[in-house]
Amino acid sequence: MDSIDIEYVESPELAEPVLIEGLPGVGHVGKLAAEHLLEELDSELVARLYADEFPPQVDIDDEGIASLTCASFHAVYTDGDGPDLLVLTGDHQASTNDGHYRLTDAILDVAEEFGSQRAFALGGVPTGELVEEYTVLGAVTAAEQKAALEDAGVEFRPDEPAGGIVGVSGLILGLGGRRGFDSVCLMGETSGYLVDPKSAQAVLEVLQEILDFEVDFGSLEDRAEEMEEVVGKIREMQDQQQAQLPTDDELRYIG
Amino acid sequence: MDSIDIEYVESPELAEPVLIEGLPGVGHVGKLAAEHLLEELDSELVARLYADEFPPQVDIDDEGIASLTCASFHAVYTDGDGPDLLVLTGDHQASTNDGHYRLTDAILDVAEEFGSQRAFALGGVPTGELVEEYTVLGAVTAAEQKAALEDAGVEFRPDEPAGGIVGVSGLILGLGGRRGFDSVCLMGETSGYLVDPKSAQAVLEVLQEILDFEVDFGSLEDRAEEMEEVVGKIREMQDQQQAQLPTDDELRYIG
Amino acid sequence: MDSIDIEYVESPELAEPVLIEGLPGVGHVGKLAAEHLLEELDSELVARLYADEFPPQVDIDDEGIASLTCASFHAVYTDGDGPDLLVLTGDHQASTNDGHYRLTDAILDVAEEFGSQRAFALGGVPTGELVEEYTVLGAVTAAEQKAALEDAGVEFRPDEPAGGIVGVSGLILGLGGRRGFDSVCLMGETSGYLVDPKSAQAVLEVLQEILDFEVDFGSLEDRAEEMEEVVGKIREMQDQQQAQLPTDDELRYIG
Amino acid sequence: MDSIDIEYVESPELAEPVLIEGLPGVGHVGKLAAEHLLEELDSELVARLYADEFPPQVDIDDEGIASLTCASFHAVYTDGDGPDLLVLTGDHQASTNDGHYRLTDAILDVAEEFGSQRAFALGGVPTGELVEEYTVLGAVTAAEQKAALEDAGVEFRPDEPAGGIVGVSGLILGLGGRRGFDSVCLMGETSGYLVDPKSAQAVLEVLQEILDFEVDFGSLEDRAEEMEEVVGKIREMQDQQQAQLPTDDELRYIG
User: Which fold has domain D4-216?
Assistant: First the structure.
């Protein structure tokens, strides 16, 4: 196997599709969002990307059938007047610095192969606390992209995220921009501690406005409710533990 | 030395031999099973595989003679009507992600060189607790392989092992499958905490039924008994320690 | 992208410019010093260096515009009779041993491209305690360089720094020296615990004497004052905490 | 710079010199032994080996002069009838598995360049406790080497060292043996906790008998005495600390 190996499965004619990247990251926001598009919209697997930077691993499906771990490109056809999408999903990022560069270069190669010149990297940005209002932060490679995004509710904050944007999402901008891609990163605010379907929904709501398509959020809302229950139980347990601890007053009488 | 260096020692004519991989892993199940085949059956060293992904190390034999650490291929001739075996054993997996890919590619090259188109990767799957019944889990690269394996007692469980199968065993399926190998992974259930000869025996019992050969399990049973003694002693020590701890009732009167 | 990718932005005619390296390191002394030169003197971006050894990351500017992380070369024109400067700044060193070698080789290639044959690597040397007098230590690739540096107040101590000089600064000497560069490392003493603008100023004061230029230190002194305040607050907090702890005398009566 | 770069300094005519390797390792036994040969015998620097697997570092000499870290080959001329020596010393091993293979291959290339076909890798073998009698263990690449070594007091123990021999010393045997080198590893027993000049002397005493030369051990004995003093002080401090702890009897009356 080559260091990176692209397996083309289908070759549909796509009209300047928009690359949507949703690999694992903070709060799994990008991954949840991209997978939701595949579940809800008309989609077709078009290519698999194998990389020796991914773990040496096969995944097992519900029949016990093993397949080499990979990232997948799906063509997604939306109902509205918007462009076709080329959605990248998978379970892994690269495992080394230079591996991230080679992986992202290969991803952009595939996107160009399908005629794409525009990319949205989806992800989360950690706030460190529970999020009440799901703001979506943006970063772009050229200033003229900002107005349309701001109209769709995206916020741009000076020098944020402070540590830059790392991983494949960052390089979709960094390497994509150098190749002439019109690249945008949409980052949903999220605590950073939990998988966050609500943040994924916030990101998708921006995306559907910009790219003029519509998607049903029912299943994502269901997952959000499940997460709420989990969070609720964690809080209850914490409260109980604190109730069992002696109060400051009680502590005064010990010893 | 090249990154991977194959040293062919013998060139016997083998009729479509079956590759059996048994490198170190969970409970050393695969390694124990493969080494047991070499001890009990008529075998011949046919090739050594050196790799700069292995530790920079020589092994010392019982005469004080040093030899560069390597993985070994043995031709194994069984008594029954079953195929010849090409058994891969060794003390190491690769040390990096991409190293696993290159190592497994080289292993499959050697297997093809001997005419093999079929592979069994042997290993263990951790249960996290002491195992009473030694079930053997299976994973395959194509659905039509399942029936014969299920007849031999192999279980297929949806999406298990949950984290996929990693290391050379995983790639024997993943890369082997992409090359057209008929690849199977047999995983003996094992606690994951101890070397487990019983789990290795369970895997071999499946293998001998599928590949139509017979092997004596006396020495493996002896090792299993030794392990039982070790486990027994650990339990005794744990019991004694607990006996020395004050009971909850006793604790109530302290302080 | 290549493993290392140089993007030339401007091609000014420079007369044997002196390479000044200020990448992150102990007390950020080198980075502070090099960035201060860019802020205070007449400078021009001439080249960017991208490397897959840098983190896979984009940096976000104050407009929310993303750019691939890189190291930058600026031509700096001084007022005095001294030579032009070629100042290297950035946020990262390499992430592996061999990466440092390749990165520094590329840096020296760029410097040669602009006609440079002389280099100053700026950095800090940790003392492990608060520094009162900011001595600047030196290391050179040839003994005849020492006299002029000692005249400018640089100290040379046998076998110091004891562990050698590591990272790009070290290799500017090690690889630069082997190429015929006249390489010097100037290391400002610094505690090693904090960003240290005073140490950076000490290094620059030596540099301006050797290279015959003048730079205003107002802004660096302001940052030094800010750091003093931070240090002061840390000390106060430590003092308060100690005041709240029982004294040895008080402890004697407990229990 | 290439990944490994050999700089030939002198080209003396050596008659089948014996490679002596003494890089850092357990108890620094090999390094101490090799450096002692350079100090005591008539020697000449013949080559430097630079490698991007070494730390990115310059070493500073007693004049403040920096030089790129490297391993060094010295020709050593002994007084007796024994062969010339080619002594390899340095401060580093490689930093990755494959780097060790490439580094050792390069070392053997240089040795062959000087006509060497015989090698002694010097090192220590950890016992985990203070050593009273300094036995020297041996490992060889061919059984016929053993008799002469046993005559010189070298012990061969089945399957020891249990974990094999790792690092450059191991590969001098492993890769050297595959090239036809007559390779021997001499391992002085040592606690493994401290630099051990006595163990280095034990190794050299074997070496001088086998290779028919004589070396004075005065300076090594001085270092051994210094180490004894250090060990003595550590023991005193431990004894004092224990004296300050309450005895079991005293503890019985607490609480």
Answer: Rossmann fold (3.40.50)
